[in-house]
Structures are given as C-alpha cells and as structure tokens.
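Note to self: keep these together.
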Amino acid sequence: MTRPANVTDYRALAKARLPHFLFEYVDGGSYDEVTLRRNVEDLQAIALRQRVLRDVSTVDLGTSLFGQQWAMPVGLGPVGLAGLYARRGEVQAARAAAAANVPFALSTVSACSVREVAAAGHAPWFQLYFVKDREFVAQMIETAKAAGCTTLILTVDLAVPGSRYRDYRAASGGLRRTLDLLTRPQWLWDVGLKGRPHSLGNLEPIVGRHAPLSDFQAWIHANFDPSVSWKDVEWVRKQWSGPLVIKGILDPEDAAKAAASGADAIVVSNHGGRQLDGVLSSARALPAIAQALGGKVPILADGGVRSGLDVVRMLALGADFVLLGRAWAYALAGAGGAGVAHVLRLIEAEMRVAMALTGCTRIDEVDGSTLA
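Structure:
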C-alpha cells in the first residue's frame, strides 16, 4: 500500500499486520454489530452547512479543557490491549499525543502500565473500570495519582461485558494460534518477541505478571462488578480530587445524574458498539444530552470518528471535545507511533478545511448553526 491517506487506509494496514485474533478484537463490536455500523454511518450522514466569503484565512483549533490548553479539541481515548498492536504501543501513542499537544487516555486493560507510560515522560489520563475488589480499585486510583495523571475517566457502561461474536470465533490456541502468528512475521518479531513482557500491566497486582492473555475475557467476566451504582461514583469522587469524567453516557437522565454526582465532564459513548447492540449511535444520542445538560459540564464524545470532518460534526452536534478510538488504534497497528502522529495531523488538516468551508474560524463558532 502507498502512504495511507486516511483512517480507512490504516485499518487495511492493521488488518494486514495484526494476527487475526487481535484485529478481530480491535475491529469488532457486540452481537450483530448494528450499533458499530450506526456509529460510523449516522455520523457520516450529518450534513454541514457550507458558507462562503467569510474570511477564513486564519483558523484556530485551540481549545481549553480542565484548565489546560490543547492544540485541538481531540484526544486519544482509552483502547484496551493497545500495547499489543505495536511494540509497547501505549508508550508510542502517548508520545505521539504529547508531540501533538492532545491528551492520551490509558485503559485499565492496557498492556503497558500507567507507571511505564508515565516513566516515558508523558503522564496520561487514566481510564478506570470498577472491579469487585474495591481495595484494588482504590489502589489503582492511588497509582494513577502517583504517576502524575491529572484526569480520571470512569467508564460505567461495562457492568457486564457485551457478547462479541468475532472474539468468540477468533479465539484459538495450540496449532491454530501458532499458525496465525506465523502468518504475521513482522508483528511476531516486533511485538511478539521484541515487545516483551506481555501482560495486563495495570492488572498485574491482581492477575499476576505471567497471566495468559487468552484468559483476558474470562477474567473480565469474572471480576467486573454488576452491582455498581451512583453511590460508587460518589465514592470515586471522594478518592479523586482532579477532573473526573464519566464515560458511557447515552441517556439524558443519566447525563444529569452524572453531573449531579460530582463529575466534571461526561463522555457520550456506547463503547464503540462493543456493549449493548442496537442502541443509539453517539451522534444520534448527543444532541438530546447536550440540551439536557445545558452547558453544566463539558461533553466529550466518541464513536465512529474517522476524520476531522467527523470531529467537526460531533462539535456541531453539541460536543466540546472528541475522543478517537479505533482511528488511532488502526494507525498504531499499521505504522506504530508514526502512524498515530500522522493520523493526528490528518485530523487537524481535515478540521481546518471543514471549518473554513463552514465559515468557522474558532472552535467556539462550531455549533448547531454549522449544520444544514
């Protein structure tokens, strides 16, 4: 393939370079993947309002969130097991994000621990899941503090895991897994051999350093806590004094409860279509949530974002900030940290074009009037 021109090209590279089971993990959704497709299709169907003769010679993408100035209202959202898509992948992605002056959020179920990522010089935002062992949850919060993380993203839409048919079909061991790995020699050398140790970095204290990654889904099913409630959010709020973001909001009433529980922001998200299939896309859910909150707290959004044009659409629908998921994961798998850096440059360039052609020169000018 020639130099990738967009996220779709990086997806093709990721499919060619990753072992089959890993590509299916990052690319797939739950059940029949209706919501997964809706995320992309609904966002692409949003029509923008083209305006002309507006003097768009200077377009400023800069924005502020949680007291910090960012180059654009875009961040790298949490993606599980990203450290297996490229050698020490989360470290590479964090460096690319820092160079672009955008935030990077590290998943609880990352391959590289928050300590390792922070030691590379770029303390990430930390994404937290509830597990049944509350003492361990408290320890993870303290570890994030010690690593210098400024923002905690509490993901609340995984009380029980969704059924992901692709993961089930791709699961294998023994000779079949060996053959799968041998068909990807570049990955096997760069990640499989030179990228060791392979573990669930943040979960090592509870699952062990050498726990097989094949048990990853089984561990989630056994340890994620279906009893969580808004009281647990309040408990986390007491443990964490920095910005607290609630991720996984699709309903306006839940958005209001999140704001009332002490959250400093929310993420409108359906977990990339990986949880409850058939729910609204993020793009369809966003306007009602923005109306319900009325600016009380910032709104972040993810789901189906594949271009800078999609970022502008999300902002016009009511988001204040947009998180990339698969977009940066595909780039990492396809070309490592350089791929992530390239995708961020593409997003920036595409945003500038979209804003110029809709007559917007600042981020705060992108709103409902930008829509056709």
